[in-house]
Each structure stands twice: as C-alpha cells, then as structure tokens.
From TrEMBL:
It comes from Bradyrhizobium lablabi. Residues 31-174 form the Flavin reductase like domain. GO terms for molecular function: FMN binding; monooxygenase activity; riboflavin reductase (NADPH) activity. It comes from the Bacteria. It holds the Pfam family Flavin_Reduct. Residues 1-20 are annotated as: Disordered. This is Nitrilotriacetate monooxygenase. Belongs to the non-flavoprotein flavin reductase family.
C-alpha cells in the first residue's frame, strides 16, 4: 500500500460539483498566510478605454525567456478586455499606494479617475510612481478552476528602490527585515 496522496481522477470536476472535502473559506484563510506583493494589472480595451484590476496573484515564471503570470476570476468584469488585449502591464505598487490598490479593487465606471499614467506597449497603462512595472505581450492563457491564468512575455520593465506594498491575511502591510527594521 502506498502512502502517496490519493487524488480524484478529475480535480476540476470534483471542485465544480461541490464535492470537495476542502472548505473554501478555510482554504482561503490558509492561502492568506502567504504574503504577496500588490499589483494593478492594466490593459487597453478595444474601445480605447484603459482598464485595470488590483491583483496579488502575480508571479515570475522564467528568466530566460522572461515570463510572468497572473490570474483573474472567470466571472470578472474585465475578463474579455484582458482576453482580447495584445499586451498588459503589471504595475507593482509601493507601500504608499494602498488607496490606489483599493480604488482598482472596486467596481467603478472610471477606475482611472485622478490616476497618472502613460501608455506602454500595446497602449497598456503604465502607472506613475509604481515600484516596478512589467510590460508584457499576452503569450498564452490557461484555465485553472474558477480563474484564467495569463502568461506574459516581458518585453520591457522598470523598477526603483521604493518599499513595496504587501498583502496578507486580508490586509495590507509592509516588509520588516529580520532585525525588525524596515528594509532599505
């Protein structure tokens, strides 16, 4: 007899049919113990309007070639904008940009009201004063449960030494170095 974990033949079907033994709320709480950076992913809609969404599912995939990923809920308002965009920009937020993260996390007719930005590759907005930005060509999409995973080929990037904004356990925070002091 093997001690290997036993997995259902089709995990996606298991979750879709509400037969999972894992409690979704408790699972989300467990995932929340993993601190992430906070980003706003932007793209230009086909009608020429900028669109953006707060996202903490951003991750690096590969250095060579330079690839990143992020995911968006299957029923998100802007899903078709990102599915049809040739490019997107991942704007990494700084510790002082919590209000901006909240602004882009809410449904709104004009999330860009009062926001300074410049058009990047494919006209995807590059937000002024972000800690870093990664301008990406939309390389591929993958279905992952109730989300779509977007793979981006990084074509341009920039960064500075400002302190990043973090998110954990449902709230915003800051990074403290091992000695209890803020990182340089």
């Amino acid at each position: 007899m093997s001690d290997a974990p036993k997995h259902p033949a089709d995990p996606a079907n298991e979750l879709a049919s509400d037969n999972s033994a894992i409690d979704p709320r408790d699972f989300r709480n467990a995932l929340g113990t993993f601190a992430t950076g906070v980003t706003i992913v932007t793209a230009m809609a086909a009608d020429g309007r900028p669109y953006g969404v707060t996202c903490n599912s951003f991750a690096s995939v590969s250095l060579n070639p330079p690839l990143v990923l992020w995911s968006l809920g299957m029923f998100s308002q802007g899903l078709t904008i990102f599915q049809n965009a040739s490019h997107f920009t991942v704007n990494v937020l700084g510790a002082s940009q919590q209000a901006l993260a909240s602004q882009f996390a809410k449904s709104s007719e004009d999330k860009f009201a009062g926001v300074s930005w410049t058009p990047g590759l494919g006209n995807a907005p590059v937000l002024t004063n972000s800690v870093a930005n990664f301008q990406c060509r939309a390389a591929n999409r993958y279905y992952g449960g109730d989300h779509i995973i977007f793979l981006g080929a990084v074509e341009s990037y920039a960064y500075n030494r400002q302190e990043p904004l973090l998110f954990a356990r449902g709230g915003f925070g800051r990074f403290l170095a091992g000695d209890g002091k803020k990182s340089p």
